[in-house]
Each structure stands twice: as structure tokens, then as C-alpha cells.
């Protein structure tokens, strides 16, 4: 090969490298633009509304009624929070207690019952199991019926009771939890079950001593997602758990709204208070939510 051919070949390689570099820079520029747009959309969708809640909660009543995002002339956040807690004989305290009991009880039942049911559905193969799986999937799409549910609760003496609303919340969350647990359990090798049975484990010991601890990632996801959903639920406590003594945190928003007048500063202070616990929960455990959701997506 002559010197001229070698030089031409080097020039050709260099031109290819330059072209590849240009394409790479172009892709990086497009990626930066897309990421910037995504950040701006996130700011508009999440940060600005949250900023508006905080600003309004800091204002006086007349100033909050203007619905502006300007800084308050007089900061009354602490006084507004005190007024919110004192409203209607400290109803917010009762509501926090009720919501905490409902959320904690429902999540504990879901974590145990749904993981057990998913274990059976995933490990056993039969026509009945297939039908049951289809019913759980249908439960993700079919909405709840209010009037029949109230009738059933009344027949069992559970309407307007804490056990009744807990059972309603559990029933509404079962399909979602079953689907997540089933997908995760599919990644656990069946050889573990066989080895435990050979060592003398019965069904309950196999599940609670071996399988249940292995579900820790998906437990975290289920607990966090269902806790936030149940704690923030407004409609179902309104229908199935009415009464001033039975108020949950979302229902306390009615305290500051009326037909002719609304205390917007107190309303937004209330919104701020009931938003903080789920918001902190998501910030602290966001990585576990993603890990649990993706852990069961690929088998093997």
C-alpha cells in the first residue's frame, strides 16, 4: 500500500470520526432540550401549585381570597395553623387519628393477605386460579358501587364504623396489590419452595419464614403507595364513614367552606398540613417505590 493510499485511508477514518462526533453532540443537544422541557413541565405541574398552597396559607383571609401568587403583606402561617387545629373542637386532631388508624390497619391487612393470596395464585396452576386472576384484573377496571356497598355494610352493622371503612379500603386496594405481589413472586425460584418442603416445612412455615421475608422490596412499595392513597382518600370516607366524629383528614376541608363564604387562608393551611405527611413519605421512600415496582417486571 502506497503512502498516498495510507493518507487517504486516515483521512477517511478521521472524517468518519468527525461525523460520529457531530451526531453524538447533536443527540446530546436534543437530550438536553428534552430534559429541560421535562423539568419545566415538572415545575409548572408540581412546584408552582405547591408554592401557591404555601403562599395562600401564609396570608390573611381577605388577601387569600384574591388568589394571587404575590408574597403576603402579613405572614400569618402560624396563626392560621393554630386556627385550623382549633376549628370545630380540634376536629383535625380527631381526623388525623382516624386517618392514621384506617391507613395503618388497612396496609397491614393488605401486606399479609394479598401477599399470601398472590403466592397461591402464582404457585398453583389450574382453571380456578386462572379465573381468580382474571377477577382480580377486572377489579382494577370496574369502579366500586356506592349504594350496594352501603347496603352490605348496614346488613353487617359496619356502616359508619371504623372496621367497616377499613374493610372497604382493603377491598378497593386488593386487585392492585395482588397484581404487584404476583409479578414479584414470579421472580422467586420454585426450587426454594421444594427445598423447604424437603426440609419439613409446611405451607405456613414455608410462607412466613422463607417467602415473606423475600418480599421486602415489594412490601415497601405496597405500603407506601397504599398508605398515600388511603390517607388521601376523600370520596369513600365521605360515603361510608360519615359523621363529625368519624372525620378523616380530607373531610376536614369542609370546615372552612360554606355556601356564601370560604376561609381560603385556613383552607389552604389545612391542605398544607394534610399534604406534608404523604409528601415526606414519597420523598424519603421514592427509591424503594421504583425498586419494588421494577423488581418483579423481569423474571430470572
UniProtKB/TrEMBL annotation:
Please give the coiled-coil regions recorded for this protein.
none
Q: Localized where?
A: Cell membrane
Query: What kind of membrane protein is this, topologically?
Result: Multi-pass membrane protein
- The reply to whether S-adenosyl-L-methionine figures as a keyword in the UniProt entry is no
- Transmembrane stretches, start-end: 29-54, 95-121, 128-153, 165-186, 206-231, 264-285
Domain called ABC transmembrane type-1: residue spans: 96-285
Record keywords, A-Z: Cell membrane, Membrane, Transmembrane, Transmembrane helix, Transport
Q: What is its main location?
A: membrane
Q: What is this protein called?
A: Raffinose/stachyose/melibiose transport system permease protein
Give the record's family classification: Belongs to the binding-protein-dependent transport system permease family.
Q: Which Pfam families match?
A: BPD_transp_1 (PF00528)
Q: Record's SUPFAM superfamilies?
A: MetI-like
Amino acid at each position: 500500500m502506497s503512502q498516498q493510499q495510507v493518507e487517504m485511508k486516515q483521512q477517511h477514518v478521521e472524517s468518519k470520526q468527525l461525523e460520529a462526533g457531530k451526531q453524538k453532540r447533536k443527540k446530546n443537544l436534543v437530550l438536553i432540550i428534552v430534559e429541560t422541557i421535562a423539568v419545566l413541565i415538572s415545575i409548572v405541574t408540581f412546584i408552582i401549585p405547591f408554592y401557591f398552597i404555601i403562599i395562600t396559607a401564609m396570608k390573611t383571609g381577605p388577601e387569600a381570597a384574591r388568589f394571587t401568587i404575590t408574597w403576603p403583606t402579613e405572614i400569618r402561617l402560624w396563626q392560621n395553623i393554630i386556627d385550623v387545629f382549633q376549628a370545630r373542637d380540634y376536629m383535625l386532631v380527631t381526623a388525623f387519628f382516624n386517618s392514621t388508624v384506617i391507613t395503618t390497619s388497612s396496609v397491614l391487612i393488605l401486606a399479609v393477605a394479598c401477599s399470601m393470596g398472590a403466592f397461591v395464585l402464582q404457585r398453583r396452576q389450574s382453571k380456578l386460579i386462572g379465573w381468580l386472576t382474571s377477577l382480580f384484573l377486572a377489579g382494577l377496571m370496574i369502579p366500586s358501587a356506592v349504594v350496594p356497598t352501603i347496603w352490605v355494610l348496614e346488613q353487617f352493622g359496619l356502616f359508619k364504623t371504623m372496621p367497616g371503612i377499613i374493610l372497604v379500603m382493603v377491598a378497593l386496594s386488593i386487585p392492585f396489590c395482588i397484581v404487584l405481589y404476583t409479578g414479584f413472586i414470579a421472580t422467586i425460584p420454585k426450587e426454594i419452595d421444594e427445598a423447604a418442603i424437603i426440609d419439613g416445612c409446611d405451607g405456613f412455615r414455608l410462607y412466613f419464614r422463607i417467602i415473606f421475608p423475600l418480599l421486602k422490596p415489594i412490601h415497601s412499595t405496597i405500603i407506601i403507595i397504599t398508605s398515600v392513597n388511603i390517607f388521601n382518600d376523600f370520596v369513600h370516607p365521605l360515603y361510608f364513614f360519615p359523621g363529625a366524629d368519624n372525620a378523616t383528614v380530607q373531610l376536614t376541608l369542609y370546615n372552612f367552606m360554606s355556601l356564601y363564604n370560604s376561609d381560603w387562608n385556613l383552607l389552604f393551611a389545612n391542605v398544607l398540613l394534610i399534604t406534608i405527611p404523604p409528601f415526606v413519605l414519597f420523598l424519603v421512600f421514592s427509591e424503594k417505590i421504583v425498586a419494588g415496582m421494577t423488581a418483579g417486571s423481569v423474571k430470572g
